[in-house]
What we know:
Elements: E1 4-7, E2 10-13, E3 16-17, H1 18-25, E4 29-33, H2 34-47, E5 53-58, H3 65-73, E6 77-80, H4 83-91, E7 99-101, H5 108-117, E8 121-124, H6 127-140, E9 144-151, E10 173-174, H7 175-186, E11 191-197, H8 208-226, E12 233-235, H9 252-263, E13 270-273, H10 277-280, E14 284-295, E15 300-304, H11 313-317, E16 323-325, E17 335-340, E18 349-356, E19 363-366, E20 387-392, E21 395-400, H12 405-408
Parallel strand pairs: 4-20, 5-6, 5-13, 6-7, 7-8, 8-9, 9-10, 9-11, 11-12, 12-13, 15-17
Antiparallel strand pairs: 1-2, 2-3, 4-14, 14-15, 14-19, 16-19, 17-18, 20-21
Helix pairs in contact: 2-9, 5-6, 8-9
Amino acid sequence: MDSFLLRNGVLFAEEVSLEEIALRYGTPCYVYSRATLEQHFRAFDEALRGQKHLVCYAMKANSNLGVLDVLCRMGAGFDVVSLGELERVLQVGAKADKIIFTGVGKREDEMRRALEVGIRCFNIESESELHKLNAIAQGMGKKAPVALRVNPDVNPQTHPYIATGLKDSKFGIPIARAMEVYRLAQKMDALEVVGIDCHIGSQLTELDAYREAAVHLKHMLQALAAEGIHLHMVNIGGGLGIRYKDEKPPSPCAHADMLHSVFGPQNDYEMIVEPGRAIVGNAGILLMRVECLKQADTLHFAVVDAGMNDLIRPALYEAWMDIVPVRKREDVAAKPWEVVGPICESTDFLGKERRLALKEGDLLAVRSAGAYAFSMSSNYNTRPRAAEIMVDKGCHFLVRERETLPQLWAGEHKLP
């Protein structure tokens, strides 16, 4: 569900026309709906009601301060993967004891800062990381709370670039070695072993792989308890998919029911979930304008002012994202268009064979663009990154200014 709906043939974000947004802020720009963000976070939080839990938003999906602020006010925890993400979420007033630090290559300065502010847990992905964190925590006179990220070798049936739980993945500790690594961690003086973690991939639309991974975690918890290593936190990660076209992903309630069927409805664990895309994906659109219509031998090209630097998912993953007109046209016939950008790359497309009724100057919206869209954007071709707007009922707020050209080279220097 989202709050981008047609009213009298014009697309609105909540109670604000996207034509008004384009007039006020220009294009391309990203537009987010506060109501949708809140609705999607609440769905996860309420699904686990009665179970000790924490919903940690995976902020790599979208780290805009406006988005983080909305979720922080809702009581969200946060899953961070860099020092930059940690500092971002602290900027909106997030409590450090609701922050979990994930990532396969944490640096020493990142570990020090996370220990300094007192985060809830480090998700550990290698023996090397264990030794490094233990030494740093010892030197600081701290005790570092850790969970081991176990790689269960489960196939999530998703795009290979976003599958993270297979045996050849760089992420996590192979499940066959996890017991040995837990024994090692338990002996380290400056570590407190509190939990187990697993994340098998992104944009998952079935629960079977989740269930298989959860069963692996349960068996490991039982084996650890038999050796006297009792954990109280189970982090099942994120990855629940959204609808881009005709997918039918499971609901947060179905996901919670699956967890309870594996671990028991009255279990004593604190359940951690780390949704990112499922919270923010359908809460955003990319608003863009048709610059020109071009006829090739066999194809019709609609060249828009947004490119692969603004939205790389179609070029990188061949991802399908819905493209819709902001105002429906009745004065021209619809036909198939290749929706492409201005970047000097043949891979610069946002949609292929989209049946649209178009004229030059029309506004288009790429739906489901709240996740892994602006956060993966770049300045390729020396293009300023887009503005970001948050809509709240009938109000709209600029939550990131459009970059200016001088900002792009402000830190560069000519030779003397």
